Amino acid sequence: MAIALADLLDEKQVILRLRSRKPANAIREIVQVLAHNGKIDMPETFLEQVFARERAHPSVVENGVAFPHARTDLVNQIVLGIGRSRAGIPFGQSGTRAHLIFVIGVPQQLVNDYLICVGTLARLAKDEAIRSTLLHAETPREFLDALAVETLYPGP
Questions:
Q1: Using an 8 Å Cβ cutoff, are 78 and 4 in contact?
Q2: C-alpha–C-alpha distance, residues 148 and 111, integer Å
Q3: Where are the domains of the chain?
Q4: What pLDDT was estimated at residue 156?
Q5: What one-character-per-residue DSSP string does 54-80 give?
Q6: How many of the other CB atoms lie within 10 Å of CB of 118?
Q7: Which pLDDT score is estimated for 94?
Q8: Whole-angstrom Cα distance, residue 30 to residue 40?
Q9: Alpha carbon 107 to chain centroid, angstroms
Q10: 116 burial class (0-12, 13-18, 19+ CB within 10 angstroms)?
């Protein structure tokens, strides 16, 4: 069975209007949504793991997209929360603005699946038409439909 990006999240895990203007606050806002939806049991611990990863290896923003993440035992499947900021949130030392932030929690045993997931998301974000749809979607369903065009990887 194939797994689509849409299988990793639902409309409740998409924030179309992030209130935050700083990276740490935006990540926290997205993690709170994941926790509220039962995707992460220990959100503060997970958040600290994401922040530790960001300190060691800051997310690079390409095409206005950032992928802060943590490899963690706090999740048993890949979890994905998304935030969108019209103004953009400056990431890293360069301060490049991210308009789309994909916060990802990855179990240690699924690192290869994570790489496929991020590669697929990055490829989608490079597509101008898809990126435009993501940036202008008026509902979480419209946003997810733009991502659902891709199959991540075939199953067994």
A1: no
A2: 21
A3: 3-153
A4: 42
A5: HHHSPPPPBTTEE--EEE-SS-SS-EE
A6: 17
A7: 86
A8: 11
A9: 15
A10: middle
